[in-house]
Specification:
The chain is 43% helix and 10% strand. The protein has helices at 3-14, 31-40, 64-72, 90-94, 130-147, 152-177, 193-199, 217-230, 244-250, 273-290, and strands at 26-28, 48-49, 75-78, 99-102, 185-189, 205-208, 234-237, 256-259. The chain binds zinc ion.
């Protein structure tokens, strides 16, 4: 027996049989949604996260490596709507042979936003309602089963388990947030409508609708007046944007400062990220408003 063949046989006898078929390359735009897809793909392959760290999808600019990942992906999950404005019209061209899934247009999502507030478009922060997270999970499982039948039963089993975990999270979040109900606050950008509607919170005002366009001095003084008139207890900033605006806003008032992070800037990506992001958000509301 010559050496290469011998080595090959030795490898073939000792290597474990592959446990799962290779999964198609999957790309997801933002961390909370990536986490849900990673939960569906757990034990098979991790999806790629496009916007990492503390970056905001509202102001992100695409890197060449991102464009390559999008071109090579078999499935791309984005929220769509106004969220990933950096992808814009280029998205269709960037996703070359793959399937593009825009989650904001899924049927079965909870209606966006609060009653009585004017909106020119839907609120794209859809993952902030756990019921929507369950719709995203079911959709991801279906799309993955379609593209990768060999792992179909694993995706379905993961999705079922994840959905049950999400029911538990929903009840937990309602408990955490309960003491904060009906206490007025202001937010940096109008991102929390889905969360607020589900758990009975309501922002008195948002500094800006579009965080890519920071508020000017006039908007700041408008919101300051509203804060005083409405007895606002907290002003929430975000790690993705300049905190100095919030400091200016609350200067010489008794209003407290909190931080809301809908994207989990410092949370490690993966199947547990969604749960941590949502718990942190609930605690941030409750901690500042009822503390
Ligand atoms: Zn946003």
């Amino acid at each position: 027996m010559n050496k290469p063949i011998y080595l090959f046989l030795a490898w073939a006898l000792t290597a474990p049989a592959p446990a799962v078929a290779a999964a198609p390359p999957v790309v997801v735009s933002v961390k909370p949604v990536h986490s849900l897809v990673a939960g569906v793909m757990e034990g098979i392959a991790p999806p790629r996260l496009l916007i990492t760290g503390g970056a905001s999808p509202h102001t992100y600019s695409l890197k060449p490596s991102d464009a390559r990942a999008l071109a090579q992906a078999k499935i791309v999950f984005v929220v769509g709507g106004a969220l990933e404005s950096f992808l814009g019209k280029a998205l269709g061209a960037l996703v070359q042979g793959g399937r593009l899934v825009e989650l904001a247009t899924l049927p079965g999502l909870a209606p966006a936003g609060r009653a009585g507030r004017d909106r020119d478009s839907m609120d794209p922060h859809i993952w902030l309602d756990v019921a929507n997270a369950k719709v995203i999970v079911a959709t991801a499982a279906r799309v993955l089963e379609d593209a990768d039948a060999a792992n179909g039963r694993r995706y379905a089993a993961n999705a079922k388990r994840l959905s049950a975990r999400l029911d538990g999270l929903d009840a937990e979040l309602a408990r955490i947030v309960a003491p904060a109900k009906d206490i007025p606050y202001v937010v940096f950008h109008d991102a929390y409508g889905h969360f607020e509607r589900r758990y009975g919170l309501a922002a008195a005002a948002a500094l800006t609708v579009n965080p890519a366009r920071p508020p000017g001095a006039r908007r700041l003084s408008e919101v300051r007046r509203a804060m005083v008139a409405m007895g606002v207890r907290c002003a929430f900033g975000e790690p993705q944007f300049r905190p100095t605006l919030i400091d200016t806003l609350i200067e010489d008032t008794a209003v407290k400062v909190g931080v809301l992070d809908a994207l989990g800037a410092t949370v490690p990506p993966g199947p547990d990220a969604y749960f941590r992001i949502m718990r942190d958000l609930a605690r941030a509301f409750a901690g500042c408003l009822s503390g």
